[in-house]
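Hi all, long-time lurker, first post. I run a small reading group and we've been trying to get comfortable going from sequence to structure in the token notation. Rather than ask abstract questions, I figured I'd post a concrete chain and ask someone more experienced to write out its structure so we can walk through it together at our next meeting. Sequence below, copied exactly:
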Amino acid sequence: MFVSIIVPSFNQGRFVGDCLRSIMSQSDASSEIILIDGGSTDGTLAMVEEFRGSITHFISERDAGQADAINKGLRLARGELVTWLNSDDFFEPGALNHMREAAERAPRAPFYMGLGSRTDRAGITRAPFYPKNFEFRREALLWGLNFILQPATFIRRAALDQIGGKVAGGLRYALDTDLWIRLSAVGDPVLVPHLIACSREYPETKTAQGGWERFREIQQVAESTTSAALTPGVLAELMRLLHEQWLGDAAVRARFPAETEQGILAVWAAAAGGLRVLTGREDGFPIGGTNPVSGDPGKES
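-- Answer (accepted) --
Happy to help. Here is the structure in token form:
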């Protein structure tokens, strides 16, 4: 089964080499790398030269953001399985083989969710992304928070074509949430109990800097799929952002009574309670049920 890996990148010269090495170290000839660069000016292009012979398609030009880059890659992709790997993330050894085997065992699934880890800027420490006994639950995705580790998730191209063949071009922060919701309307994913990818989390990431624009997209996607303006996930994200703003801006705090923070925390706790009712956990990761998978990387053989 042929696999297409799209690598969207913009000014990530410090990470893109590690990302590409993690793909090329898979010892897998039945795959292609499609690198879509947004016109980087930070040395990315010089770094990529080392890998040009192994990159099937390389485009470097100004674009309209990550969704535009991914969709450019999808138009070029030939794989029965497709994924994108942000240039600051990386695959774990054996990732492509594990995902290909899962897709061959369950050829009708719309997507395949592998285990993975969170790491920091240096990429040395690891923390499991999924909790133990995690399971996929569509209702939790619709009404809660996005709990899917995107770099460890591969998509069956036929299922993607069923829902339009691309990610939503108008979204910057919630494009993967929207995609998982649309794909899960086709059918449930398969959970793959192997380490597939590692996601870097650090202050300069798009997610960390999204602020109110990111919140508005989360609320927009939730309302468009549930017809509800307020969900447990939306409320939890709103209160998290309010608390972050409260702590970070003394000028804002000066205009409210001191007990305001306790009110924010109380509503945040209520939102977490809603997530617990929905998923079994206050962080929005659904657990239990009939198709659990361990989220502990220590279980990996």
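A couple of things your group might point at:
The first strand starts at residue 3 and ends at 9.
The chain has eleven helices and nine strands.
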